[in-house]
Amino acid sequence: MSRPRLGGLWFAGSLLLALLLMLVPLPAALAPCKPYWPALVLLYWSLESAERVSLGLAFALGLAGDLMDGVLLGEQALRLTALVFIALRFRARLRFFPMGQQTLAVLALLVNDRILALLVRLFEGDALPPPSWWLSPVIGAALWPFLFLLLDDLRVRLRLS
């Protein structure tokens, strides 16, 4: 299989896997701890291969996530589009941060994502979520170095650009 084709399959496969990981059920006690996988994987690809990631792709992936998760149509699309916009805007800086600073930047992006989700849900008429709802960005940021290194290692092993 040619390198460009393998690269495209790896890119699409990682995004599809992120969508599927979003659907994995967890016990009620652990549900607030589930990281937002599509955001983390899109963030990785935004930093490492910006020519493949666009706002349109983020919107389409968010719509697919909305349909799969059964939430308000457009909620995840809005959130992922905002996340990718910020990541692409500050890509030159974020890429060369040391891992600790990059993790803090990812935490800020994931908290921003949670704030957008909170605003959408408040406009929808939902009640305020419990304090444990804010654990997800912290868990996602804690997983970021491992996810980044795993995806980067696989990308390098496959010699993809």
Entry keywords:
Rod shape-determining protein MreD; MreD_proteobac; mainly alpha; transmembrane helix; cell shape; 7 helices; 161 residues; cell inner membrane
Number of domains: 1
Tell me the series of helices and strands, N- to C-terminal: HHHHHHH
The major pleated sheet works out as:
none
> Please, what is the average pLDDT?
93
The secondary-structure class comes to mainly alpha
Percent of residues in helices: over 70%
Cα end-to-end separation: 15 Å
How many beta strands in the DSSP annotation? 0
Shape: globular
Low-confidence stretches: none
Question: Any idea what the radius of gyration is?
Answer: 16 Å
Task: Please tally the helical runs, counting DSSP H or I stretches of 4 or more residues.
Answer: 7
Q: Work out the strand percent.
A: under 5%
How would you describe what is shown here?
InterPro entries: Cell_shape_determining_MreD (IPR007227), MreD_proteobac (IPR026034). It is a multi-pass membrane protein. One of its GO terms (biological process) is regulation of cell shape. The chain is an all-alpha fold and 161 residues long. The protein has one domain (3-157). 72% of the residues lie in helices and 0% in strands. It has 7 helices and no strands. The longest helix has 26 residues, at 99-124. The mean pLDDT is 93.
